[in-house]
Each structure stands twice: as C-alpha cells, then as structure tokens.
Amino acid sequence: MNLYTRSGDKGKTSIIGGRVDKDDLRVQAYGTIDEVNAFIGQAMTKLTGKDFQDIYLELEKIQHELFDCGSDLAVVYEKQKGEFKTTEEMVLFLEERIDQYVKEAPPLQRFILPGGTEAASLIHIARTIARRAERLIVSLQKEAKIHEVVLKYMNRLSDYLFAVARVINFRSGKKDIEYERSAIVFRSKNQ
User: Fold this and answer.
1) Domain 19-171, CATH homologous superfamily name and number
2) What is the pTM of this model?
3) Angle (nearest 5°) at CA 159 between 100 and 33
C-alpha cells in the first residue's frame, strides 16, 4: 500500500460524493476534528495508573467517535446512503460523564486558567481546538447540509474536555487557578 497517491498534488481532495479544494470548509472542519483527536491521544500518554483508567478508556472511545464525526462531515449529505455514524446516544454519554465529573471536581464559580498537570493542559488544548472545529462546522452548515448531530457532539465534547481536565488536576492534587479578574460566572443550581 502506498501512503501517497499524488491525487491531491493540485490542491484537491476526495470526499464521499465528490472532490473539493483542500481548503474547503468541510475539509477544514474534519481536519480540525483530527487535530482534537491527536491532542487527546497525546494527553492519553500522560494518563497512567489506576487513578485515570476510567478517563483513559473514555478518551479512547471518544477518539473512535471523532473519526465517526469526521466521516459524517466528509460525506455529501444528499449522496449519503444508509445511516450516519454520529448518534444522539454518543451525545448523551458525554452529558452523563460531564455531570459525574462536575460532581467530582471542587465547585467552580469563576473562569480558570488552562493548565495544571501536563495531561490536563493537553486536554485544555484539545478543548480549544474542539471549539474551533465547532465554529467551522457552524460555518459549513451555512453552505451545505450536514448531519446536525456532529455539531451537537462537538459542542458537548468541549464541555466534557473542560470537565475532564479539572478532574485530572483534582485527582493529581493540582488546584485549578482562577482567573483573578473573573466575575462569578458559574452558580450552583441552589443559588
């Protein structure tokens, strides 16, 4: 198998249902999802030991789901045959995990600085790239019909990554640093 085909040497790439420019919004969106996936993979190399086994396994599951999201964006909607891969159940899983991690980490009232442990810092990078992917998907859906669950998934994923980064720091004994000029922006449901 050759890793190169030379078919993209003139700035075009294949998607499912046609060919587009390599800087097409669709390609930028799924390429940015690939960046998220790579940073998650790097963060996983730092999550060793029993304290992080649950998070490691979740992140591995999410890596597969990110390929699903990219695949769903790489298809021309009108030419899609069969089911899309990204599902509402995947979104619900992220929501359930977010709720659990919010309960585990210390209460939060203000914005925090991205950082802490190396693994948490890498997760914060993945989170910001997930937000960029989300913005690109919003732009893409203005031009083309897409599988809308992908946008919902990416929105939830960035929240999940924020919650996971906080829990990684908490389990590591590393306190989040609040942004010192932040107003109170997060309130408990009882307030």
Assistant:
1) Cobalamin adenosyltransferase-like (1.20.1200.10)
2) 0.91
3) 125
